[in-house]
Amino acid sequence: MPKVGKKSKIPGPEWTKPIRELRNKLDLNQAELGRRLHYSAMAISRWERGEQEPTDRGYIELGNLAGDPTCWYFWGRAGLHNENLLRVMPEMRQRMQKSRLADFEIVSAGVSGKKVNPEKVQLVAIPLLKVTAAAHGEKGGHSSSMLSGPVENMIAAPKEWCPNPATTSCLQVRGRSMTPLIPDGCIVAVDSSQNDHDQLDGKIVIAWHRDRGLTVSRFRRYDHTEILVPENDGYESITLSAKQRWKILARVLWWIGKAP
Predict the structure, then answer these.
(1) What average pLDDT does the chain have?
(2) Does pTM surpass 0.70?
(3) What would the pLDDT profile of 52-61 be if each residue is shown by its tens digit?
(4) Spatial separation of the C-alpha atoms in residues 130 and 146, rounded to whole Å
(5) By the 8 A CB rule, do 171 and 206 touch?
(6) Residues in CB range of 67: below 8 A, 6 or more apart
(7) Nearest residue to 99 (alpha-carbon basis) of 174, 176, 14, 158
(8) Rounded CA gap, 103 and 232, in Å?
(9) How crowded is residue 144: how many other Cβ atoms within 10 Å of its Cβ?
(10) What gap in Å lies between CA 184 and CA 180, rounded to an integer?
(11) 55-256 — its CATH code?
(12) Structural domain spans, the chain
């Protein structure tokens, strides 16, 4: 009687091995890696078992965490390639165009102990989300999209502009309440880990209201009163209160826009 051989194990999707290897390289368990990426341990487990592929945002953060050269695998699965490096702030373009790709260094976001070359441009990838931060009086996107919304594109930015890459996203501004400082159509980079009211007086922020969605404005505190102040005098300020139910979600780090 012929022997019945063991069933051969079907290999999982190609993304599972690089994720496991990165986690092992960083000496993290699934829960620890999840905290670094702002995902649950169960999500990491599903990625590694091949049951669910990481989102574009997940791949971006994996790349930021991995550093060069592994980052290009993860970023490539999210759609970012070498040519996307020129999507940076205008004052960096001339320096980058004169440099070769070898002059760039992709740093491991959040990983200490790695020596970096000060002569190289250190970059991280920031997701450009399909979500809008609206002007005063208009309706913007939902708060949940700040960390889990769909990714439209990616922007490579200098590391020093993104102190917390895992909580940094780019959103598009719609409306004119922040003109001339932030024109309609600009892209703003926001850090959702910076939401402490005590640290935000005078800063540009992203606020959220259940009925109005995401709004971009300047946050001001006067004694016990908190106000969202537009740059454009043609728009009214918004006083924050328990009745209004506004929530400050993030600080705006910087913004970019196309020349007219």
Answers:
(1) 79
(2) no
(3) 999 887 888 8
(4) 10
(5) yes
(6) 106, 107, 108, 109, 111, 114
(7) 158
(8) 41
(9) 10
(10) 9
(11) 2.10.109.10
(12) 55-256
pLDDT of 96? 41
CA distances from 13 to 10, 31, 189 (A): 10, 21, 33
The answer to whether 75 and 66 have CB atoms below 8 angstroms apart is no
Q: Are 161 and 99 in contact (CB under 8 A)?
A: no
Cβ neighbours, 10 Å, residue 147: 16
Please report how the helices 30-37 and 41-49 are oriented relative to each other, as an axis angle in degrees rounded to 10: 110
Residue of higher predicted confidence among 12 and 16: 16
ω into residue 69 within 30 of 0, thus cis? yes
Which residue type, as a one-letter code, is found at position 147?
L
Q: Give, to the nearest 10 degrees, the angle between helix 30-37 and helix 56-66.
A: 100
Q: Where are the alpha helices (DSSP H) in the chain?
A: 16-25, 30-37, 41-49, 56-66, 71-78, 90-98, 145-148
Token pair of 94 as six digits: 């001339």
Burial class from Cβ neighbours inside 10 Å (0-12, 13-18, 19+) for residue 202 reads exposed
Judging by beta carbons within 10 Å of its beta carbon (0-12, 13-18, 19+), is residue 10 exposed, middle or buried? Answer: exposed
By the 8 A CB rule, do 186 and 256 touch? yes
Distance CA 60, CA 189 (A): 15
CA dist 196 and 211 (Å) reads: 23
Q: How far apart are CA 49 and CA 52, in angstroms?
A: 8
